[in-house]
Amino acid sequence: MQQASPASTMPATTYVGIGQIKPLGAKFELPDAGGGCGTHGGEGKASCGSSGGPDDMPAEIWEKVKNHPCYSEEAHHHYARMHVAVAPACNIQCNYCNRKYDCSNESRPGVVSQKLTPDQAVKKVLAVASEIPQMTVLGIAGPGDSLANPAKTFDTMRMLHEQAPDIKLCLSTNGLALPEQVDEIVKYNIDHVTITINMVDPAVGEKIYPWIFWKHKRVTGYEAAKILHEQQMKGLEMLTARGVLTKINSVLIPGINDEHLIEVNREVKKRGAFLHNIMPLISEPEHGTVFGLTGQRGPTAQELKAVQDACAGGANLMRHCRQCRADAVGLLGEDRSEEFTLDKIEEMEVVYDLDRRRAYQEKVETERQAQHDAKQEALAEAANLGVADDLKVLVAVATKGGGRVNEHFGHVTEFQIFEVSRSEALFVGHRRVDLYCQGGFGDDEQLPSVVRAINDCHAVLVAKIGACPKDELSSAGIEPVDQYVGEFIEKAALAWFNDYRARIASGALVHQDRGDAAIRQGAYTAAQAA
Question: Phi/psi at 244 (nearest 5 deg)?
Answer without folding.
Answer: -85, 130
